[in-house]
Amino acid sequence: MAAGTAIGAVMYGLTSWIGIPIVPDTDLRPAIALLAIFGAIFGPFSGLIAGFTGHVINDLIFASEVSWGWALASGITGACMGLVYFARDFDPEAGRIRKGHMLILLIFGVIGIFGALAFTGWFDIYVMKFPDEIAITQVISAGIANVFVFIVLGLPAVWAYGNRHKSAAF
């Protein structure tokens, strides 16, 4: 699990620079799918550490400073996506993954994305003193983009991972 968490953090950190700008300082980033994968496979603590540490790595390499509110949001998002790990009979490593598990992942993922970004908006407005309209625009845009990437890339990747192991188990 520790190795998986470290790999997740490095992968998330090194791929988070890849994105399509949607509003100033906010991109549609395919790397969000990695939080679903590492959270689901290794659990919420791994998702938390991979998201938070990966975001910090990205900011240290590709930005001028660490955005702590956004780094915490990445960690919270990964942790929420990882809650599916505790679902009854969920074990993608053994090929035990059902549509009900995917629904749980979807619900916790969307709640995690918007909950984490609500925290980030609050943090940016009240701690970092960003103008309300800029912070709110970034939060809403990032939320929509993250949900899109999560649904289009993250959910299918977790499903495929579990199903790949299902056929290998027989």
UniProtKB/TrEMBL annotation:
Record-level GO cellular component terms: membrane
Any one Pfam family match given in the protein's UniProt record, by short name: ECF-ribofla_trS
Gene3D superfamilies for the chain: 1.10.1760.20
InterPro entries given in the database record: ECF_substrate-spec-like
Entry's transmembrane regions: 6-24, 31-56, 68-88, 100-123, 135-161
Assigned keywords, A-Z: Membrane, Transmembrane, Transmembrane helix
Name recorded for this polypeptide: ECF-type riboflavin transporter substrate-binding protein
